[in-house]
């Protein structure tokens, strides 16, 4: 079998599995295809997603439905101001055994394949930081012992952008560990009708698991195999560089309103997301169009606005859209 035939077969298998997963999620979640695909992209890239939207838009329901549609261990953490790090990662307790008292580590909810960190900005920075090692290293160190988290592993965190009283905004270092920041939009009229029909009648939907851990790990490996041409990768690099006000690629808005641009994790996220998007469309090669489609969710939380930018209500998406419009696709 030639390499082209093998790649075509792998793409067809990918589309079949993802199609079945989308179908199961769509039985519960109305619309929001872009958000659903964004969450799936984070899962297939082996990373984490931050979902932002006002209450009642189905953020938590989406994560729960995804967990039901895959055969993975799921846990939910409701972040509150009195939550402590030990409530997340676990704690060491004293157990009485045949040889007397022994110390035993009891794992917290962070030890699951899918972790829902609900309203993550309501906990104190000390508790928020308990997720850092788990998100980056997929392991947790307690005392002198390191505990490995089973693969696949990804954290889906939610936050409410409106009610900021009594909340603790995530620090830049932790925001940078989220692959995507997905903004959940308010549904349209037809979508609202569909939501009402599904939730105010006796209709009950049972989601069936269609993928297991081994299949997801195999899909993640396939994503890494998708090739990226040098000029496509160079365009992604230049997009990242253009978010820094001291670079020659920076636009007028970046120089005026941005204090600090994205980190190298940003371009890593763009290129991995571009590979996933190519597979979503049945292609085994990432394109510049994939880079442009992936740039906003990958970079919007990695751009730090200056005081002037915040005062004038500038949104990172405006800045990124200008970069994508003005940046030449060919080598500068």
Structure description:
This protein is α/β, with parallel strands linked by helices. The protein folds into 2 domains: 1-82 and 111-225, P-loop containing nucleotide triphosphate hydrolases (Rossmann fold, 3-Layer(aba) Sandwich), CATH 3.40.50.300; 226-332, Helicase, Ruva Protein, domain 3 (Orthogonal Bundle), CATH 1.10.8.80. The protein has helices at residues 3-26, 33-44, 59-69, 85-89, 125-128, 132-137, 172-175, 189-199, 213-225, 230-241, 252-257, 264-280, 288-299, 307-311, 316-326; strands at 49-52, 70-71, 74-78, 90-97, 100-107, 114-118, 139-142, 145-148, 154-159, 180-183, 211-212, 258-260, 304-305. The strands form 5 sheets. The chain has a 5-stranded parallel sheet. The protein has a two-stranded parallel ribbon with strand order 2-11. Helix 10 (230-241) crosses helix 12, helix 10 (230-241) packs parallel to helix 13 (288-299) and helix 13 packs antiparallel against helix 15 (316-326).
The total count of helices amounts to 15
Distance between the termini: 40 Å
Which CATH class of the largest domain applies here? Answer: Alpha Beta
What would you call the shape? globular
Number of domains: 2
Supply the helix-strand structural class: alpha/beta
CATH architecture of the largest domain: 3-Layer(aba) Sandwich
Element order, helices and strands?
A: HHEHEEHEEEHHEEEHEHEHHHEHHEHH
Looking at this protein, list some descriptive labels.
single chain; 332 residues; alpha/beta; Rossmann fold; Helicase, Ruva Protein, domain 3; two-stranded parallel sheet; globular
């Amino acid at each position: 079998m030639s390499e082209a035939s093998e790649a075509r077969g792998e793409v067809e298998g990918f589309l079949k599995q993802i199609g079945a997963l989308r179908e199961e999620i769509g039985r519960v979640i109305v619309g929001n295809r872009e958000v659903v695909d964004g969450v799936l992209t984070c899962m297939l890239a082996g990373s984490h997603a931050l979902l932002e939207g006002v209450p009642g838009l189905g953020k938590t329901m989406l994560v729960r439905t995804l967990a039901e549609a895959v055969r993975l261990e799921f846990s939910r953490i409701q972040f509150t101001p009195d939550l402590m790090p030990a409530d997340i990662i676990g704690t060491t307790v004293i157990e009485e055994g045949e040889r007397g008292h022994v110390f035993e580590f009891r794992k917290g909810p962070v030890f699951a394949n899918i972790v829902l960190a609900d309203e993550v900005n309501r906990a104190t920075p000390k508790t928020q930081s308990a997720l850092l090692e788990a998100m980056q290293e997929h392991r947790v160190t307690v005392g002198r012992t390191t505990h490995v988290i089973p693969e696949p592993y990804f954290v889906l965190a939610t936050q409410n952008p409106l009610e900021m009283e009594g909340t603790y905004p995530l620090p830049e270092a932790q925001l940078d560990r989220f692959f995507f920041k997905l903004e959940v939009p308010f549904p349209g009229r037809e979508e609202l009708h569909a939501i009402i029909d599904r939730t105010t009648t006796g209709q009950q939907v049972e989601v069936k698991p269609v993928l297991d851990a081994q299949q997801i790990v195999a899909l993640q490996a396939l994503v890494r195999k998708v090739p990226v041409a040098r000029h496509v990768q160079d365009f992604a690099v230049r997009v990242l560089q253009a978010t820094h006000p001291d670079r020659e690629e920076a636009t007028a808005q970046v120089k005026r309103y941005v204090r600090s641009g994205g980190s190298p994790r940003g371009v890593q996220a763009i290129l991995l997301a571009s590979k996933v998007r190519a597979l979503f469309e049945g292609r085994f090669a990432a394109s510049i169009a994939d880079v442009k489609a992936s740039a906003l969710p990958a970079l919007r939380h990695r751009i730090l606005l200056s005081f002037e930018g915040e005062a004038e209500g500038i949104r990172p998406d405006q800045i990124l859209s200008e970069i994508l419009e003005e940046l030449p696709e060919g080598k500068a």
